[in-house]
């Protein structure tokens, strides 16, 4: 019965030929016509509770619509037509195929003027169709970005006639026509205190109290009242109560999504509705395959707002259908989908593959906010997707002037975090340097610090900007009104300073004041290192004891004077003998054993993260012999003897025996 459903189902019919539709029942007596009309008219028009409502159009009277209800009213300024003649025309216009073609034609129009011009050609118009015309006007105006109707539309005689009939006899409207008309008028920003809107709202409330509205009508009314009066309106509680009492099996997929939107608007009352939400979440698993891309995006957004962490099975199933719909999402819909996946921690390789294809094909046309959200998703889930990163790098080089400082940071930071240099890295960093030189003062201090720090992670130290960020002026801006600088910013500054010392020996600019330096990069809340995997460490420790002969020949979690924490340190003298870790003299070489668990790599990859890559790079520059022991090499070893042999080959590749 719903208007939207009709438009969806009948969008492929042939052209509309309204003038050939009026040609039957001309010789029936009046009583017979009434009988036929009640038997054959569609249920959305002939309500059980209300008399039929129709708008009749008269070409000779300045194209005005007039209400006809039985024998009560006749067109003004024109001879009255016979009841038989009117009913004949009316019933012919309500043939099923004409109803379908009406919505087909309505959907083809791209402006309000076209809709109203089309309405002027009709001789009769049922209330549901009239409401559908208002709704189509609403849709085309929303697509144009206008918040209010143009003056010429508001003053149009056809538009005023439509509104006049809805205002004059709301009690004669069908349920569908009533709620659809109210919805359209609210979206069209018609004066909410006008008698038109007030009368429609009052009629809706009366029918609601009598329990006369179906599920779809309740959903439409609920969303309309939220927009009109806010989520706190008392009537909304009654609507939700009646929806809770309905069987979910009678809800269409669109109704379920509308129900989520209604509950989303009342997110502060989620605890009261949680039992109902649990039922909806479980039921929604059965309708996911019927949802449109827009509906999937809206459902995921509602699950985020309502914090439905327990609905992960629904999120996972929605994710499977997201893969199919990626090319069909709008920019905003795709952004919300990815935002939901970030929120719920959802990661699916098929989704990544589909996203890679989409970004590679359309990256230059995607909104910057969508590209930023995609990069945030890859960064948070530690997904090293070369197609996405390469496409984003190309986009940045060609469109950097269109990006805001925050968007630039969101696009560049993942390259550092994921330790990835795209093929066009030279052009990328030249463009970035140009943007920073041109707009340096427009970047928020913390955003700028994160951006420059991410560049240092991938061995591109921002040497031309270090003097600025180490200056007292910038540090004061970075601190703002706080009594002290936050720990993470201090750690990033310290690592940048260490980078300037180790990787940029030619840098002679300002140094970072000691008061802004940290002593360790490994801290619980804001670490620039990944803690050691305990279970992996235990396995390696057993092998080291067997290899070296005693626990005293190596130290664990050693904090260096350079802020880095070494997983395992082994000291060697000039002849290659292993020294006890308590010895501080005659040390010729220090071996830094990096026991790299899965969290130090990109997801499902053997590619180190940027924070681990810079740590190992700096340790080598500081004179350490860095030995990497990755988890994926340890996992394939089948025996303790194999582990010892593996560690010996890693630590002493040139010696067949070990001395201690």
UniProtKB/TrEMBL annotation:
**Domain of life assignment:** Eukaryota
GO terms (BP aspect): mitochondrial RNA processing; regulation of mitochondrial mRNA stability
Name-wise, this protein is: RAP domain-containing protein
Sequence ranges assigned to domain RAP in this UniProt record: 591-649
Instruction: List the GO cellular component terms.
Output: mitochondrial matrix; ribonucleoprotein granule
MF terms from GO for this chain are: RNA binding
Listed A to Z, the keywords are: Mitochondrion
SMART domains for the chain: RAP
Query: InterPro entries this protein is in?
Result: FAST_2, FAST_kinase, FAST_Leu-rich, RAP
**What does the UniProt entry say about where the protein is found?**
Mitochondrion
Among PANTHER family, the record links this protein to:
FAST KINASE DOMAIN-CONTAINING PROTEIN 3, MITOCHONDRIAL, FAST LEU-RICH DOMAIN-CONTAINING
